[in-house]
Amino acid sequence: MKFRIDTFTWLLLGAIVLASFFPVTGAAADAIASLGTWAVALLFFLHGAALSRQQIIDGATHWRLHILITSLTFVFFPLAVLPINGLSNIVPQWMPKDLGLGFLYLGVLPSAVSSSIAYTAMAKGNVPAAICSAAASNVFGMMLTPFLLLLLVSTSGDGDFSVTEALKDIVLQLLLPFAAGHAMRPWLGGFLGRNESLMSRYDQCVIWIIVYSAFSHSVVSGLWQNLPVQAIVLAILLCFALLGLFMLAATLMVRKFGFSLEDEAAVVFCGSKKSLASGLPMAKVLFSGHPGFGMIVLPIMCYNQIQVIVGAILAQKYRVKIEQASAANAHTTKDHGQNH
Description:
- By secondary structure, the protein is an all-alpha fold.
- It contains 14 helices and no strands.
- About 80% of the residues lie in helices and about 0% in strands.
């Protein structure tokens, strides 16, 4: 089959190039960040309005799927990055100590909320399950991430972490808009059902804003100027390897447990992604004043850009597979009805 990069992926690459040469800074950066916050809130509002009560109940009670995603995020991923941190004792010129610490930090971060759900929606996967899992990952991640990090490394990070503030943001930006949207379903549900393409385009716009804002931050921070070239190359290769490993692991585990294709999309996206939106604010608290802050956040910066690009390509492939499977099922059901 001939490989083809879709338009949306080119737009994401364009966002990265644009941020590299024209990063948003100062008041404009604050405005873009605020726009992203409101855009994510509206995203969840629209998904709340588009989903039926039964879909939400099915998603929330899909406990086997949630256990699988949580295990990938907070058990298997932290274990997978332990050997990477060990490289700092073997080849420090390739893996500086702070960069190794950054990979440990990447491993204990919660799943990315907005992009996980947006990609699941683009793929026509199990959106209710993705919303519940991504939200739960971030709620628990606010408490689990510092604990797991301190468990993995004996650092003297202070424990003054604002769990209350993080939980407030999750409620205000995710759960409240979703509930409000669902309350408006009687008035908006029909319109959204007839205009699914508009929802898909809005999902893509939100992701584009997130990518441009995040990569601008990375460029402005000057991370690339403070690291040896070989360390940057190794970090990028390791991020690709980790993402590939967990996407493959998620796929194999889902198929072993007999989940549907829609569930598979949700697990692959939620179980392999790591949150830059949560990771950077938490890093500022956990590593406040640390001289190697730039190296510590480099892995999540790299991983975020890679997961966005790879996720966009994979979401399109899942969408085609799920649409084909749905059409085949509909055709089978029709033939069965005619035979009876």
